[in-house]
Queue: 2 jobs
Job 1
Amino acid sequence: MREQKHFVSLTDDEILLLDGRCDERIQKKIDIVKMQQRYNIAAPDEYKPIIARILEKAERTGILSYSRGRHVRRCDACDKAAGYATYTRTTKYHRKGDPNFNRPLAFYAHSIAGFEICNDCFSRLEQHLLRNLDGIQAEVSHHLTGHSSALLCFTNVICNECQWAGHEGELKSLPVAFGGDAKCPRCGSTNQQIIGGKVARVYGQFTLIPNPKYQEPTS
Ligand SMILES: [Zn+2]
Ligand SMILES: [Zn+2]
């Protein structure tokens, strides 16, 4: 027998009562509500979920990246899909106006921390996103903010020769004649595999340091 479904709208406090006691689909929404509360996001309700997801991803990876001009099939903020081109004529196989699944469409998007945001959403979201970036623990792209980031993100590295552990910003550079790569500040081993490099990146681990060139934006 099919289980009866209920369609209700819940406040943040109400939906949080289901935390850990519901199916995956609802838990995903709950996780986003928890993110919103953790970051104490100040924005209209409709923008809170995507801003929370952007901040969470940025802090988890150390970087809030931004680029524009990508063409994507779906917007992560409004869930709008680009869909498919339609047939312009009726033939033996197709009716005019039916979607042509061989011709997927794409729209222009802004990519923020890996989320694809359509132009409409971005123009409404941008100011709210920028207002919620104070104190964010990540290197924030100057293409998004228009000024240098207060923090810089470096991937952690380890020297397998002398066991020195640090981050890429602490490595000494090799002369350009050797390809301009880097070496361990303690024992001088290089990170160039080609000449037996011992310094390796620790993927997924990073260190944030204050940007020495950071200037408080003048607003
Ligand atoms: Zn959108
Ligand atoms: Zn070393």
Note: The two ends are 62 Å apart (CA to CA).
Job 2
Amino acid sequence: MNSLIAALLPIGVFGSCPFMDIGTPPSLKAEVISDSDFKTALEGLDIEALEQDLRILMTDSQTCWPADDGHYGGFMIRLAWHCAGTFRTSDQKGGCGGAGIRFPPESDWEDNGNLDKARALLVPIKQKYGDALSWGDLISFAGTVAIRDMGGPTNPHCFGRVDDADGNKSDIFGVTDSWQDTDCVVQGNCQEPMGAVKVGLIYVNPEGPLNDPNDLNSGQNPDPEKSAVEIREVFGRMGMNDSETASLIAGGHAFGKCHGAGVMTSGFEGPWTTTPSQWTNQFLTGMLDEEWEQVATPSGSAVQWQTKDRTSILAGTMRLTADLALVNDDAYLALAKHWVCDQQKLDIAFAASWKKLVESGGGWLPVEDRRCEPESKATGQQTDPQKNFHSVCATTTTDDSQEASTATKFCLSFLAVVLTPFSLGVHSWLA
Ligand code: HEM
């Protein structure tokens, strides 16, 4: 009986959000306007007002789907990331242009669980701005405004993604039940031209790669080092290099939480930081400062990680195997240390990689018809007062200006040593 109540609780408490049928049309189709009508309407879009409306939405928690920590920011970033993260360089397909995430197959993927509620929350804003605001622009901008509203770094956002009327363009990515119809040979270890390792995921398995790369039923290997190899491969298929990949994960998981208790999404449970709706680099510092040990997810079916020190300030936070990949790979670790010693560098890297992510792929108006925010909208990339604060910095970095002045002093003394006897010699020869 108790388990029945527990199973019904999320439905009873949260009910169903209004507008679900508009964010995710049950007819699997939506009305779209012509490109030229969209171009004309976009010219009139009040981007400043839209940002203000989105900022209000972020903290306007609705009973149908209450905001974690009082802020929808993490939820909206995940929606935007999953909308854009389908992009693959193999054939330049995917991306948030077209907003294929609203329709099957994408809307049905296990990885996109509960994102129908995020789209439902956005419907009143879509209705207010009408044809001037495409779903692709709305979803991606909701992610950008979420980062801004939580104090994070962003670059100017560009508008002009043209919506599709259905999800047909995503058919090549496949549906989980009939993954054999795609170009994937081993489900769970798909290779190019597929973007993700599994039909139904956006990227890698959070719990690490398959134990046996040829067998979906071999289970996941929670080995951060092996996960790093898979992350590099899969984010590479999205056109992301090491710095772009690591900054995206470190920036993304600075916010929000995993849901595996009460609200069930991925089955993992807990936030990455002690302030999930505030931009910090605690996601990275936590992985450098703490030792992490494996623990079962609430359902017992998967592995996540907790701090070994159960009295730590981070004891209530968690890490995925794929998170720990960033400190179990030489190149990612070097980047992590670099950013922990100078958060401004992480700010700059994350703002740039986020912009690249949400602008990847086709489904746009021609470049001359797009609209971009002014450069002054680049937020949150301030000089870092905490520069070189972390203990790993003492040995790995020095202040740039100090480096420069040390180098100058070295050159001057070198010249003095070499030139003094010479000039003395010239002097005595002249004399
Ligand atoms: C290796 C790559 C990644 C893996 C394996 C991964 C995995 C996950 C998982 C399992 C969740 C929990 C979902 C839930 O239960 O609600 C999650 C949430 C989240 N992810 Fe990622 N993720 C990755 C990359 C990214 C990137 C690149 C971003 C954005 C730049 C991002 C942003 C987020 C955010 C903001 C949440 C929190 C959602 C919320 O608070 O509702 N993730 N991720």
Note: Residues 80 and 357 are 9 Å apart (CA to CA).
